[in-house]
Specification:
globular, alpha+beta, 10 strands
């Protein structure tokens, strides 16, 4: 009886070892395969991540490769969005927020030339690259920026990864410090309703406002306009997870994320 069981175990191992590699790989990953979904978002197709990885050829997906929507100046309430035909004016941006970053950086000159690396920076506004806590830094204090009442010397912003229906790469939207708290309140409101930020479609718009010293600026507004169905939500979560893993494998260049952020 024991010999019979041993023979069956050996036969089973031999059969497994002689299976084609592709077949064994498919069997191994079968449980993680997400079924196709009917959606306006082309990134949710079965081949979107495959295309992404194949085109990258293991090269880093660095920040400069993305289209970036900068903060409008002078109180303008229209976004300037990079497109195939050049910059396009759009009053609002709609899509799924795959994730976001909260970088900050400090320059020891009031108006650094674009491209100048900061003296100190942090990808998450919590700990600098040197390992120092941002909360204890004097340049994080309100009023530490000379010449501007109440402003911090260390610049902050939020970078939102906004996935739009016709693209598999997200659009990067830079939110200035003047609207950072508005965005964080939006995410907190979603949290209080047990809603994941990548399970809904968010609309980003601009509203004209005036600062305490009389300067016009654009205030960002965030609104949930649609809840994804269950299949879309599963795809959004998985795509966002894998995409952010790809992006987070590279060292983040803070300077272009912060410059002109307000």
């Amino acid at each position: 009886m024991e010999n019979s069981k041993l023979k069956q175990q050996l036969d089973s191992k031999i059969k497994a070892s002689t299976e084609p590699v592709e077949e064994r790989k498919l069997l191994h990953t079968q449980e993680t395969i997400i079924p196709p979904v009917h959606s306006d978002y082309v990134a949710f197709s079965n081949h979107a991540l495959e295309i992404l990885r194949e085109n990258l050829k293991n090269q880093p997906l660095s920040f400069p490769l993305f289209d970036l929507v900068k903060s409008p100046s002078g109180g303008a309430v229209v976004f300037s969005v990079p497109g195939l035909a050049g910059e396009e004016a759009e009053k609002e941006l709609t899509g799924i927020i795959l994730g976001y970053l909260t970088p900050r950086a400090y320059w020891d000159t009031p108006d650094p030339v674009e491209g100048t690396p900061p003296v100190c920076s942090s990808p998450d506004s919590m700990v600098s690259y040197e390992g120092k806590p941002c909360s204890q830094c004097p340049f994080n204090d309100f009023g530490s920026k000379n010449g501007e009442s109440g402003a911090k010397a260390c610049k902050e912003s939020v970078i939102v990864f906004l996935l739009r229906p016709k693209n598999i790469l997200p659009l990067l939207v830079r939110i200035p410090v003047s609207s950072k708290m508005i965005f964080l309140k939006y995410t907190t409101r979603l949290l209080s309703n047990m809603t994941s930020i990548n399970s809904i479609v968010t609309k980003i718009s601009l509203e004209k406002a005036t600062s305490k010293d009389g300067k016009p600026y654009a205030k960002y507004q965030f609104e949930s306009v649609r809840t994804l169905n269950l299949e879309e939500a599963v795809h959004a979560k998985e795509f966002g997870k894998q995409f952010m893993e790809i992006f987070n494998t590279v060292e983040i260049d803070i300077e272009p994320m912060i410059q002109e952020a307000g």
